[in-house]
Amino acid sequence: MLLDAAGRAPSAGNSQPWAFIVGKRGDGVHAKLVQHLSRSSAAWAPGASLIVVNLSQRFVEDTEMDYSEFAHYDLGQAVAHLTFQAHAMGMSVHQFRAFDRDAVAREFSVPDHWEVTTMAAIGVPTTEARSMTGAGTSRERRSRTQITWARGS
Ligand SMILES: Cc1cc2nc3c(=O)[nH]c(=O)nc-3n(C[C@H](O)[C@H](O)[C@H](O)COP(=O)(O)O)c2cc1C
Q: Taking the model in full, what pTM does it have?
């Protein structure tokens, strides 16, 4: 269901430059992923029901040609779609970069034209996870005025 939502995201030229590695707590994929978390994410991510690795296709296979100018943008949209689906199912999604990308790529034989971009921990957050503090964990948002570059009246 979550991956179906991700896969329904729009993408430039319908290029769908995304793929996912899904580890469910207790299975072998999850166990492998947990080994590659950074110290910061290892403190909370393993407790989530799912750890999903988000991959973007950066190059056309066996070339140095960009696969899509919008590969990162489109992967972000796919993960956003997955996030809203998870919320509708009563779960939260915490995306993160704090893990060893190269090690995950080696572990799952991700070819060079794909990039291991981010991970997402998905589940019902514990109180501990909700009250996380530390660099990059602020939940404050810029105001509507601050994010409006220009507008008419
Ligand atoms: C590309 C990306 C990378 C992120 N990396 C991390 C990370 O390494 N560690 C972390 O705790 N959160 C990470 N986050 C989560 C943000 O820090 C989080 O969205 C922000 O703290 C606001 O929290 P909220 O979205 O739960 O309100 C990342 C988010 C994105 C989209």
A: 0.93
